[in-house]
Amino acid sequence: MNPDDHELAARLAQRAGDRLVENRASTSDPKALGAAGDAAAHALLIEALGQERPADPVLSEHGVSGPERTPGGRVWIVDPLDGTREYGESGRSDWAVHVALVEEHEVRAAAVALPGQGTVLGTGEPPKQPSRIGGHPRLAVSRSRPPEFVHDIAERIGAELVPMGSAGAKVAAVVLGEVDAYVHGGGQFEWDSAAPVGVARAAGLHASRLDGSELVYGRADPWLPDLLVCRSDLAGELLDAVSRTQPEGSR
């Protein structure tokens, strides 16, 4: 892996985030704003990766760019705007930009920009995991449709649910110690979690499927059914609680 890949991921996430912040003042129509911001950030990332890593394919929610993908080969997985709805709402900061490099089905370098919070979290200089302050564990959940099985998990371990926006913002909140875990069971695409998972692991957090198995990226089918990101000292308790529930759909 190119040692500059960590720096490149962080730099491009920052640039796309800056573009989104600038674009946010272009209209007051939330739907139009989200579409325009997503398109602008996507164009920036595709152009920049094409210039700086021309031999690498790029996978995003908008499709594949560059050379053909090969199983286990290098591929950049990006989400230009994670949390389009939150981005379109004035004053909300729980949206993100994801940039990740995957090779041999593992995240090798990654960055998550939180432009509304003025923060970029990356694998080059991963944040140190803050000490847990105690009290009830806090679980990040969808602010609009928290899944029933997460309520069951919270009841089993005495946790508090914290409604939040995008998947990247939820994982970032775990990385920053604002919450203790993000439990997801409704399916996502690789671009929704590759960069956040890379940053979380670099920071020393647990990241796996809900059954404890490995997260595998860079597959032919980019769909991932579920995800758990949490403090390492909480992983065993959460995995046990998850195993006693029947996850339905969630975000």
Automatic annotation (TrEMBL):
<dbReference type="Pfam" id="PF00459">
    <property type="entry name" value="Inositol_P"/>
</dbReference>
<feature type="region of interest" description="Disordered">
    <location>
        <begin position="14"/>
        <end position="36"/>
    </location>
</feature>
<dbReference type="InterPro" id="IPR050725">
    <property type="entry name" value="CysQ/Inositol_MonoPase"/>
</dbReference>
<protein>
    <submittedName>
        <fullName>3'(2'),5'-bisphosphate nucleotidase CysQ</fullName>
    </submittedName>
</protein>
<dbReference type="InterPro" id="IPR000760">
    <property type="entry name" value="Inositol_monophosphatase-like"/>
</dbReference>
<feature type="region of interest" description="Disordered">
    <location>
        <begin position="118"/>
        <end position="142"/>
    </location>
</feature>
